[in-house]
Specification:
about 0% strand, Helix Hairpins, elongated, mainly alpha
Length: about 110
């Protein structure tokens, strides 16, 4: 049992990344609540970070780690701006249902 835990390879991390990314895509496509959509986008960004770090470790490159840090910083900025927009929309309309937000279409 101990040997199974200590022999986790790169493929395991890539499979985990693919599963997390798929869950995020399903969350974006199925859910209507804007908060859930934003959480799904964050899940997809974290899955991409896992894949980037895995490939960086495979090739012994430090550039992948710095790129992942940039992605984390962009994700934090996206959350701050996205939550501010959602709060403003909720104050005006009393809902954050994505299907009912049609103001910007016209």
């Amino acid at each position: 049992m101990n040997s199974v835990v200590t022999h986790i390879g790169y493929g395991h991390f890539l499979v985990l990344s693919a599963i997390l990314f798929a869950i995020g895509v399903v969350g974006v496509l199925i859910r209507r609540n804007a908060l859930i959509v934003m959480m799904s986008i964050e899940l997809m960004l974290n899955a991409a970070n896992i894949a980037i770090i895995t490939f960086a470790r495979m090739h012994g490159d430090v550039g992948g780690h710095s790129f992942a840090l940039v992605v984390i910083a962009v994700a934090a900025a996206e959350v701050a701006v996205g939550l501010a927009i959602l709060v403003a929309v909720f104050r005006g309309r009393r809902h954050i249902d994505v299907d009912r937000m049609t103001t910007l279409k016209y």
